Amino acid sequence: MRRSSSLTSPSAVVITVGNELLSGRTVDTNAAWLGRFLSDRLGIEVDLRLTVGDEQNAIATAVAQGMARAEIVIVTGGLGPTPDDLTREAVARALNRPLLLDQGLLDQLTGRFRSAGRPLPDANRRIAMVPWGAQLLSNPLGTAPGLLMDEQGIQVVLLPGVPREMNAIASEAAAEALRRVFAGRLPDIRSRELHTTGVPESALAGLIGDAFPSGFGGVRLAFLPEETGVDLRLTVTGGTASVGRLDEAEAQLREVVKPWLFEAPETGDLAEAVLTALRTRGLRLAAAESCTGGLASKRLTDVAGASDVFLGGVVAYSDDAKEALLGVERKIIDSCGAVSEEVAEQMARGALMRFGAEVAVSLTGIAGPGGATPDKPVGTVCFAAVHGDQAVVRRSVFPGNRDGVRQRSAQAALALILHLVDGRLTPPLD
Description:
17 strands, Molybdenum Cofactor Biosythetic Enzyme, Chain A, Maf protein, six-stranded mixed beta sheet
């Protein structure tokens, strides 16, 4: 089995388990998340990624292959109570360890179900069968804990396949355990993230490259693009002595990206920045949505504590609903079209009155694939944000499929609110 030098950081093999991953019915986001997390937060590089189905031989073979290659093998998926959850059995067999009942874990599971007014299902008892010598990794969001086993110096980590549970265990219990095992071999990594929206990655890279052709003096910059914007991660290795360099690089970068920068320290979501700006000014918000079907409202209510700012929203998908629920004039719909700046503004003013809010936002558009006209192609979306007598109205044409248009539209609507109430976020850069 491979052993790395005690002076170098360990590498990892990531194994994802599930027939749904092999068939393509489920996108393997877990492997991507683990790769970023291990590298960015622990300084552990992934040497190999494997995906196998729900079959004991395949899982055991993958684990053996991983152990021959790296000092850390992480397996995600197959820890639940159903018959196709076979990771425990497969790994126990690969490591030649018996599965034993963990009475403490069983008591914990029984108590958890009892507090919910239900008996523990027989199937869930499987969760309490643990390979001999395994350390339990606390799962704050589910029933199945993670498991950590030291096999002749190789750390085998088992995590649930449910992304939010996997993320929670990896970020806390598993990370703490790996730092302890590899103390002195993992680099001290410091990082900062800046959130931007309304500017394409290519344009952003050009602006930053022109301003800092030689980079940031040992501070690494990574671009993390999504449909809703581009996050910028600054990373430096070297402990407290490197914090000054990180501070300087962040300050320099902020100046370049300032027109598209927003602050969302808890969630990284523009909705958080919008709610904070409105809360600071004592303003309440309402929404009127058509093509996004409530997506902007969902983004807002995903942020804890949104209820003191966000009063509610109306999904007015049909022309009749726009007229009946938001007071949009039929003659405006007939003359300008449902996807128009005029209708968007009337939708926003209708939401403002219906909810008694101080600020309202609206959007109406063509997400596709049908409904386009020569002057309004797929991706055409009209927005309005109003605050008292003030109104900002825009039209954009977004690229992408139906989901991409909807995602970009919700983001643009949120950006328009922030632009209206405090002048931040310039119009999108083409």
